[in-house]
Amino acid sequence: MFLGHIAVGLAGKRFAPRASLATLLFAPMFLDYLWPIFLLLGWEKVRVDPGNTVVTPLAFDSYPWSHSLHMTLFWAGLVAIVFRTVTRDTRSAIWIGIAVASHWVMDWITHRPDLPLWPSGPKVGLGLWNSVAGTVLVELALFVVGLWLYMRDTRPRGGRGRLSLWSFVVAVTLIYFMNLASNLGPIPTSVSPRTIAMMGLALWIFIPWAWWIDYTRRTVR
Ligand SMILES: [Zn+2]
């Protein structure tokens, strides 16, 4: 899932209005931010396998440290505790922990059974990714709700506050649909895990972007 995680980030302003959107987006993306780092370290494995599901050609052969349920709960607790220690904001810290854990639940809905319950444990996944229409419907619905909540709770500080948010919305929507469309043509199977990791690392750009959005909009709750 991609837009669904971003939706949780945007919706976060409702539940943790004092936290920056950068932090609120970082939390639900956290597992996918760890994943490319663990790929580069050789701790986790991915491979291009056209038709693995109709939504992605990636076969997630092994990602116990970033994507097992057991480790997800560990990361959620860790991120929440670090946030609470730095900010003393318990309410936001609880939301941040929930948001980190939400990633696993959303991946569980979308992935085929490749998510381990614990490292080397049984693998689960409901496989929404076997349906393009179902995936797009669920992700777009989540994204629209998240964006709606965010816009209800914030106001732009002039034109910059509109530019920051809408450029972000256009960028993530474009990335999402270009990614889907890339499955229609022939899929190069020679893409290395390193290249996949680099593309994953590029998504870290959303954090300074979210910081910019937060800086140019005020919270009205
Ligand atoms: Zn994920």
Query: How large is the count of helical segments?
Result: 9
Share in helix? 55-70%
SS elements, strand count: 6
Low-confidence stretches: none
Strand content: 5-15%
| Strand-pairing-aware structural class | mainly alpha
Mean pLDDT across all residues, rounded?
A: 95
Measured between the Cα atoms of the first and last residue, the distance is: 29 Å
Structure described in brief:
The protein has helices at residues 3-15, 21-41, 64-67, 69-87, 90-110, 132-153, 159-181, 193-202, 206-215, and strands at 45-48, 58-62, 115-116, 123-124, 154-156, 217-219. The chain is mainly α and 221 residues long.
Structure description:
With 221 residues, the protein is mostly helical. It has nine helices and six strands; from the N terminus they run H-H-E-E-H-H-H-E-E-H-E-H-H-H-E. It has helices spanning 3-15, 21-41, 64-67, 69-87, 90-110, 132-153, 159-181, 193-202, 206-215; strands at 45-48, 58-62, 115-116, 123-124, 154-156, 217-219. A two-stranded antiparallel sheet has the order 1-2. It has a two-stranded antiparallel sheet with strand order 3-4. It is globular and about 45 Å long. The two termini are 29 Å apart. The mean pLDDT is 95. Bound molecules: zinc ion (ZN). Zinc ion (ZN) binds next to helix 2 and helix 5. Residues 31-32, 67, 103, 107 line the site of zinc ion (ZN).
